[in-house]
């Protein structure tokens, strides 16, 4: 291995540098977008069908977290101790100068999200919200769904 | 000089850029068209409602009994101009807004909504319709406040930016039993 490397060190170093550059620029893009939108995860992939037909599985959503919430916004929120963020619409909004309390509902669900929240939680607070959806890009996120639904795809799509 | 990996990366990068530019162009063209057709100014709505208030036992995390409001309402709105080739659906909703205990508190609740998928169903005319959602305040009682009625719409496009507006109406409803 090291012998191979030393055969042509300049070329091999350049290769490593290229890979590092690719990783660094992807990271820079992500973090840059995060700063601009003020959201910890500015791009999310829709994983469930609870917002059909507004958004389908595999759609990529761009979030914006710099404006005040309003009714009818589609927000992405996190529930304590639950790993997956949820994309649903604001059904009720109670706001004061310091607080914003939100009740959400999926367009395609028969009832509101009260049952999805943590025990004893009646509302989502502003700090639980990663941002409101400001743009939709269809299909692009389907790769991630393929990977999570069919683990063998991982080896095909992400070799090495 | 170029490895397969580098070629693939170049390809992917190129098509990502092409896709993003295309999506942005589609979105801007569609919004420009809606704007040129004055789509955002045309939507007006007429609303009226009556409320029935009942005291209900606490559910889930509530500690006290709360007043729940059920509305019956009239709504006339035409959202036909919001449909073009990039409109996947328009989500419409009826909102009641009422003040809170302090001046800085503002409460907005949706009591009815609908997914409108095509221009064929874009004329909304409801008479004495039942609200889809009953609602309660953070405090146990509405204290006979009166709520302003408004009509909201939000366009979900196939590609691009979401658009929305809240159309104020002259309708009010008294939240008292």
Automatic annotation (TrEMBL), chain A:
It is found in: Endoplasmic reticulum membrane. Keywords: Endoplasmic reticulum, Hydrolase, Membrane, Protease, Signal-anchor, Transmembrane, Transmembrane helix. The chain crosses the membrane at residues 129-148. It is a single-pass type II membrane protein. GO terms for biological process: protein targeting to ER; signal peptide processing. One of its GO terms (cellular component) is signal peptidase complex. Its EC number is 3.4.21.89. Residues 28-92 form the Peptidase S24/S26A/S26B/S26C domain. Its main location: endoplasmic reticulum. It catalyses: Cleavage of hydrophobic, N-terminal signal or leader sequences from secreted and periplasmic proteins. It comes from the Eukaryota. InterPro entries: LexA/Signal_pep-like_sf, Peptidase_S24_S26A/B/C, Peptidase_S26, Peptidase_S26B. GO terms for molecular function: serine-type endopeptidase activity; signal peptidase activity. Component of the signal peptidase complex (SPC) composed of a catalytic subunit SEC11 and three accessory subunits SPC1, SPC2 and SPC3. The complex induces a local thinning of the ER membrane which is used to measure the length of the signal peptide (SP) h-region of protein substrates. This ensures the selectivity of the complex towards h-regions shorter than 18-20 amino acids. SPC associates with the translocon complex. Catalytic component of the signal peptidase complex (SPC) which catalyzes the cleavage of N-terminal signal sequences from nascent proteins as they are translocated into the lumen of the endoplasmic reticulum. Specifically cleaves N-terminal signal peptides that contain a hydrophobic alpha-helix (h-region) shorter than 18-20 amino acids. Belongs to the peptidase S26B family. This is Signal peptidase complex catalytic subunit SEC11. It comes from Tortispora caseinolytica NRRL Y-17796.
From TrEMBL, chain B:
The keyword Oxidoreductase does not apply. It is found in: Endoplasmic reticulum membrane. Keywords: Endoplasmic reticulum, Membrane, Signal-anchor, Transmembrane, Transmembrane helix. It holds the Pfam family SPC22. One of its GO terms (biological process) is signal peptide processing. Its main location: endoplasmic reticulum. Belongs to the SPCS3 family. It comes from Tortispora caseinolytica NRRL Y-17796. This is Signal peptidase subunit 3. InterPro entries: SPC3. It is a single-pass type II membrane protein. The chain crosses the membrane at residues 12-32. One of its GO terms (cellular component) is signal peptidase complex. Essential component of the signal peptidase complex (SPC) which catalyzes the cleavage of N-terminal signal sequences from nascent proteins as they are translocated into the lumen of the endoplasmic reticulum. Essential for the SPC catalytic activity, possibly by stabilizing and positioning the active center of the complex close to the lumenal surface. Essential for viability.
């Amino acid at each position: 291995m090291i012998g191979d490397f030393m055969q042509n060190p300049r070329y091999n170093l350049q290769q490593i540098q290229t890979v590092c550059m690719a990783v660094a620029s992807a990271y820079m893009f992500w973090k840059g977008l995060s700063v601009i939108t003020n959201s910890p995860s500015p791009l999310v992939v829709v994983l469930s069908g609870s917002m059909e037909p507004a958004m389908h599985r595999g759609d990529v959503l761009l979030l914006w977290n710099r404006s005040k919430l309003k009714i009818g916004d589609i927000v992405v929120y996190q529930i304590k101790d639950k790993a997956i963020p949820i994309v649903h619409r604001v059904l009720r909004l109670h706001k004061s100068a310091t607080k914003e309390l939100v009740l959400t509902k999926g367009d395609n669900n028969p009832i509101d999200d009260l049952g999805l929240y943590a025990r004893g939680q009646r509302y989502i607070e502003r700090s639980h919200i990663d941002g409101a959806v400001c743009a939709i890009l269809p299909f692009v996120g389907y790769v991630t769904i393929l990977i999570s639904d069919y683990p063998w795809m991982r080896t095909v799509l992400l070799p090495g | 000089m170029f490895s397969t990996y580098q070629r693939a990366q170049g390809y992917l990068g190129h098509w990502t850029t092409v896709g993003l530019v295309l999506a942005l162009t589609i979105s801007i063209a569609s919004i420009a068209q809606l704007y040129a057709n004055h789509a955002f100014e045309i939507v007006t709505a007429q609303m009226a409602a009556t409320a029935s208030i009942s005291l209900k036992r606490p559910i889930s995390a509530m500690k006290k009994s709360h007043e729940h409001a059920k509305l019956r309402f009239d709504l006339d709105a035409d959202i036909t101009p919001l449909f073009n080739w990039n409109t996947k659906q328009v989500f419409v909703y009826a909102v009641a807004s009422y003040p809170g205990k302090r001046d800085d508190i503002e409460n907005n609740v949706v009591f009815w909504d609908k997914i409108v998928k095509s221009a064929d169903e874009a004329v909304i005319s409801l008479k004495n319709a039942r609200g889809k959602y009953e609602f309660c305040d953070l405090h146990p009682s509405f204290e006979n406040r009166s709520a302003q009625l408004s009509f909201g719409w939000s366009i979900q496009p196939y590609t691009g930016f979401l658009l929305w507006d809240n159309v104020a109406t002259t309708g009010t409803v008294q939240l008292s039993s």
